[in-house]
Amino acid sequence: MNNNELLEEIKNIVSECGKIIVDADKDSLEIELKEGNNNIVTKYDKLDQNILKEKLINLIPGSIFIGEENDNYKNDFVADKYTFIVDPIDGTTNFSRQLNMSAISVALLKNDIPIIAVCYNPYVKEMYTAIKGCGAFLNGKRIHVSNKKLKDGILLCGCAPYYNELRKESLDIQNKLSLIASDYRRYGSAVIELCNIASGKAELYFELELMPWDYAAASLIIQESGGKITTISGEKIQYNNPSSIIASNMVEDYTKYIE
């Protein structure tokens, strides 16, 4: 199966799981707390992950699957094998509160490099896709980052919601950047926010700590749309550990505003 065929199969699997999210019984979520401040999981996170794991691994027998609900994801990571890094519902709090702003994220890596990416917001039926070296697309239409500078652009940001020790630093950076940008937003889903950079809807995104499943797929989509994604200090991101993230349209060196 070539990469184009793999992408189509992944899109079909993700679409199926998106329907489960949209049709979920919001009165029967079975919410549990995970490690971190107000970090929750529902039965639908687990259901979608189980479906994704079964069907994605079947596409590439012998591949590795790493999902948000994995207990020991670091032990599962094997850099030189085909590896799926998956978030079954990014924006679980949004999902639990019926804010209709959540996404499924699937990245396929080989030799520690994303080669196929699918990010899908089923509520608005926005599916972002990319194959390494072939550009990025939204619902089949080619996308590019914007050409606006931050003073004319929109800042997207997290606020380290699960990490109390990072909250003040995050808000301090947000305040500094928001005084430069024309406006700012927070959606509660890193996947959606990162894809908005890729599609030119905003110019800059940062977060002080994200897990690999939050950015693995979107990192390829951003790069294939002409953008840049690094750690907040400008270093290459890794996919086997948490990372700070700054993603932009590359019109400016945005790290100068954070130093």
3D architecture notes:
- The chain is globular, with a radius of gyration of 17 Å.
- The longest helix has 20 residues, at 3-22.
- The strands form three sheets. Strands 3-4-5-6-7-8-9 form a seven-stranded mixed β-sheet, with helices on both faces. A five-stranded mixed β-sheet has the order 11-10-12-14-13, with helices on both faces.
- Helix content is 32%, strand content 26%.
- The protein is built from seven helices and 14 strands.
- The model has no long low-confidence stretch (mean pLDDT 91).
- A hairpin with a 6-residue loop joins strand 1 (32-33) and strand 2 (40-41).
- The protein has helices spanning 3-22, 43-59, 73-76, 92-96, 164-178, 190-198, 212-224; strands spanning 32-33, 40-41, 64-67, 83-90, 103-110, 113-121, 126-131, 136-138, 141-142, 154-157, 183-185, 204-210, 228-230, 243-248.
- It has 259 residues and is of the alpha+beta class.
